[in-house]
Each structure stands twice: as structure tokens, then as C-alpha cells.
Amino acid sequence: MEKELISIPDLDFEYKLWKNRVSFYIGEIKIFISRLSSLKVEYGLDVDGETELLKSLKKDAERLLNELKIQEEAIAYFSDDYPIKRSHTHYLAHKTLRKKKNNLSMEFLKMIKKIESGFEPFIKI
Asked: Is the link from the previous residue into 83 a cis peptide, with omega within 30 of 0?
């Protein structure tokens, strides 16, 4: 059963998890970009397509991380309005950010799986 009123701790919990997860993705992407760059130099592999896709995904993750921080600041600024109903602008924004985070997570996992399977002899020891 869903709660009728949403409090700041309810939202804050998810934002903390999401920021942590998105930051993790950014770090992982950096590691994969670095490894692909090494493979290009060391083995002459054509990894430009994968590298560009990872860079694009990293930008998306950085953009989302920024949006999460901005929304957190907005919630703190308007803390007197809380608790809020599910129809409140902040909760609707929260649902949009949740959807973006879920989409980013799926894209990240799909991309990493593709890279790991395509370059498995070079990435795994």
C-alpha cells in the first residue's frame, strides 16, 4: 500500500541510493574507456564505436547526477511544504528522475555486457 503523504526522508533515501549508483556507473565507465583505449594501442583493436557510446552514456550519467543534486536542493529549500501529496510537483519530478535512473541503469548494464562479451579475451584475465 502506498503512503498518501511523502516526507523528505522518503525522498532523501532514494536520492542517496541513486546518486551513489550513478556515481558508480560513471567510475565504471571511466575504467572501461581507459581499458578500451589501452586495447586500441596495444592490439590495434577498433574500439572507437564502443568508446563513443561509453562517453555518451557517461555524459548522460553526469547530467542525471546533476539533476538529482538540483532536485535535492529544491526539496531542502521548500522543506516547509513537506510532507507532500503524490500529486505535488516535487514528487512528480521524483518519479521522472526514477524513470531516468532506471533507464540509465538498463543502458549501462546492456553496454557493459556488450563490451565484456565482445572483448572478453582482452578484458577478463
From this structure: yes
Confirm whether 123 is domain-assigned: no
Q: What cell does 71 get?
A: 532536485
Q: What count of other Cβ atoms lies within 10 Å of the Cβ of residue 30?
A: 13
User: What pTM did the predictor assign?
Assistant: 0.89
SS3 label, residue 94? helix
pLDDT digits (tens, 9 = 90+) for 15-50: 999 999 999 999 999 999 999 999 999 999 899 999
Q: Which domain holds residue 94?
A: 5-113
What is d(CA 13, CA 16) in angstroms, rounded to the nearest whole number?
5
Q: How many domains does the chain have?
A: 1
Residue 125 to residue 121: CA distance in whole angstroms: 7
- pLDDT cut 70: percent of the chain above it: 96
